[in-house]
Every structure is written in C-alpha cells, then in structure tokens.
Design brief:
- 43% of the residues lie in helices and 13% in strands.
- 42% of the residues are buried.
- It is built from 16 helices and 13 strands.
- Helix 9 (284-293) links the parallel strand 9 (272-276) and strand 10.
- The longest helix has 21 residues, at 155-175.
- It is an alpha/beta fold.
- The strands form two sheets. The chain has a seven-stranded parallel beta sheet with strand order 3-2-1-4-5-6-7, with helices on both faces.
- The protein has two domains: 3-221 and 397-414, Rossmann fold, CATH 3.40.50; 232-396, Rossmann fold (3-Layer(aba) Sandwich).
C-alpha cells in the first residue's frame, strides 16, 4: 500500500474539480494511506468526509485577492493587463509560493515523505515540492495540453507569459529545481508527465482535442446515492413538483439580481426555485431585498446538497464552476451558464458546444434572456436527449473509482 498526499488550495471548490475529493476517498477505501494537506480553513470540511487532514501555514495560493481598483479610471489595455496580472498572482505569487513549498518540505521532514502527490491543478507550490521531494506528481481535475503557439496569443498574454516564465525560473533557482512539473515555453502551467485526470469525457473537450496530451485520462462520473435522509425543507416540497437549482457557487455570489431574475424565470415555467447563495453572506439589507424579489415558494439557502436536490431538478442556472457544471452533467440536467470569472467561461462554452444548455453573458441576463432561455430549453426535446446521452457517457467512464486505479497504476509505473 502507498502513501498519498492530496494537496489543494484552501477553498472547498478546489477539492472538487468533478471528483478530486472522491478520488482521495476511493484511494483510502483501497487501503492506501491518504492525507489531505491544505490550510486550516479546510480542516472541518475534509474531516467531515472521513479523511485525515494536515494543516500547513501556506499552500502558496493567494486568497482572498487584494480589493480590485476602480478599473474605470484605467485605459482599456491597462485594465485588461491588471485583470490578467491579478489572475497570475493568485497561483504564482513568488514569495507566497515559496512559503508553500517550504511548508510542504517541512511537513515531509516532520512526518515522512509520501510516495506521491495528487494535487489541485493550479497549486504551484505542490508541483515544486513534489520535484524537491523527488516523488511522482498526479494532477486531478484538469487535462494536460500542448504548449501554446506564442503567435496565437494577444500582446497582453505574451507579456504575462514571459512574466510567468520568469517567476517559475526564479522559484526553481531558489530551491535548486529544474521545473520538472511545469510545461516549458509559452504560458507555462503545471504538467505531470505521468497522469492528468479529468472527470469528463473526451468529447467534452472537442474544441481542444488536438492539444490534449496522452497522459490525460477521462474518467467521467456518476450521481451518488446519498446515505443520509434528505433535509426537511426538501422533503416538505411535494415529490411531483420539479425544481430549478440556482447558484453562483461559493465565491462569486454577490449578485442578487441574478438570483431574482433566474428564480422568476424558473417559476414562470412551473418550477420551484431553489436559490443557494453560498457562505459569503449578503449584507442583511441586500438579503432582505432579495427575499422580496424572489417568487413565492422559492427556497433561499446558503448551501444545497446536490446529491439530494439535483435528482429532482429540471434545470440548473449557475456560474459555470467546474464542480457545479460536472454535477449538472452527471445528473443529465439542462443548464444555463452565466460565467463570472476564471475558467467559468470555458465551462459555459463547453455546455453550449455539447448542446446541453445555453451560455449567457451578464448583459444577456440584464436583457431578460433567462426567461426566454428557460422556456426554450424546457421545450427542446433534442437538448434534453443530449443531456441524457452525455450523462450515460460520463457514467461509463468509471468516475473516482477508476481515477484511483489509474493513480495506483501510474505510481507503480514510476517506481
């Protein structure tokens, strides 16, 4: 049996990516020693999932980011550069990443070196620490892709690409490393030469198919039957009443207008809206305004248990977080994605390409397109059929159980 460290940023969404945490649980069920490593904020959530947890002072992830400046005072090109730089700083702030590397090396010194690291796709400190510890690295939740052609980048992207290369080079020099677990050249990213797990199908990446590298494994996923009873608020809704789940996840959730417009659109089609606003609560006055704007019968929650709620849903209206999108896909749901930041735009595009829903902008929402979108999707038999087909393909991939098998196989090949 092997010892695995699963290392993530201190955000619950970074334990997901469609199945990262469930893969750790599958490895544990196989008899392997699995330790989840992150900052103290995740201790309770990971412990509740039955996994041992080790807190370190820093994972190298910048959160929360500093408050954004007023972009309206900047020239458009300067504003774009600032947004890209802030995104780069989140996963590649040099001093913070160095602290994360050192924290992982100190942990290994204290409790012993693991046999391998399985990591969050954007955790630079863990990639560098794996090289320093001379152990295999496996990435959970993101495919391995070929290096981009520099000429295909916009000028601002080329500038940031050069900056990121320089940051990685300085970090490698600081720890005497070669950058073994980073792609070389334009727009460097974390890359395992052995295994990248993605919890979708190969067809989900149809627009990037030519750039995917052979160490990418597609394991899909399937709904989980919950062991515990449904919450009382859900049992109180008559079983014959279909639901619509509306959420912006746990981070980008300060948009009351989105919640009210989406709930009104769902209620117009006879659905009971379930609005989950996350654990970053709205100010009391804003929450009171939101309650007034929601249609009668709406359930307003901080969090909704997907395994209980989604089997009763017809549609999910959401931000496009990878874990949220994955949950909607495996349950065969219609989707309307309104991306707010980061990789959410990628998920929105893929939902549209797979013909399982709509990808709308915030401007579209303000123009009332949620109402028309919900009505059109519920009437589109071919879209619902596409949702069911994709869910079946996802289930055939084997999910976290197969992911765990592939990790064990990759470790054996590396030894």
């Amino acid at each position: 049996m092997a010892t695995f460290w699963c290392v993530s940023a201190p955000l619950y969404s970074h334990t997901d990516w469609g199945g990262f945490l469930k893969t750790a649980q599958a490895l544990s069920r196989q008899g392997h020693t699995v330790l989840w490593v992150s900052e103290p904020a995740l201790a309770g959530a990971i412990g509740a999932q039955g996994l041992p947890f080790e807190a370190i002072e820093s994972t190298g992830w910048l959160w929360p980011p500093p408050p954004p400046p007023d972009l309206t005072t900047l020239k458009p090109q300067e504003a774009v550069m600032l947004r890209y730089t802030r995104a780069l700083d989140t996963w590649l702030s040099e001093d913070l990443v160095a602290q994360g590397v050192q924290a992982l090396l100190d942990l290994a010194q204290r409790i012993g070196r693991p046999d391998a690291l399985v990591i969050d796709p954007f955790l630079s400190a863990a990639a560098l620490a794996a090289e320093a510890l001379n152990v295999p690295l496996f990435v959970a939740g993101w495919p391995a892709t070929a290096t981009l052609d520099e000429q295909s980048l916009f000028p601002v992207q080329r500038s940031l690409s050069s900056d990121s290369q320089q940051r990685i080079a300085r970090l490698c020099a600081r720890f005497g490393l070669a950058g073994r677990y980073f792609s070389q050249g334009t727009a460097p990213s974390i890359r395992s030469p052995a295994l990248h797990l993605t919890y979708f199908t190969a067809d989900w990446y149809q627009s990037e198919r030519d750039s995917l590298l052979p160490q990418t494994a597609f394991v899909g996923g399937a709904p989980v039957t919950p062991a515990e009873p449904a919450p009382d608020w859900l049992q109180a809704i008559p079983p014959h009443k279909p639901l619509a789940l509306i959420t912006l996840g746990t981070i980008f959730n300060g948009d009351p207008g989105f919640f009210s417009w989406a709930a009104q659109a769902a209620a117009r089609q006879g659905l009971t809206p379930v609005v989950a606003i996350g654990w970053n609560p709205l100010p009391p006055d804003k929450k009171a305004e939101l309650k007034q704007a929601l249609p009668p019968g709406t359930r307003l929650l901080n969090w909704a248990p997907f395994d209980h709620v989604l089997p009763r849903c017809k549609i999910m209206i959401h931000h496009g977080g990878m874990g949220t999108t994955h949950a909607a896909v495996v349950h065969g749901l219609l989707q309307i994605v309104v991306p707010h930041a980061a990789d959410q735009r990628i998920q929105g595009r893929r939902v549209a390409q797979a013909k399982i829903g709509l990808n709308l902008t915030a401007h579209d929402v303000r123009q009332g397109m949620l109402r028309d979108g919900v009505k059109a999707l519920l009437a589109a038999d071919q879209v619902q059929a596409a949702c069911h087909r994709l869910a079946q393909q996802m289930a055939a991939g084997g999910g976290p159980a197969r992911a765990a098998d592939l990790i064990v196989k990759a470790l054996a090949a590396a030894q």
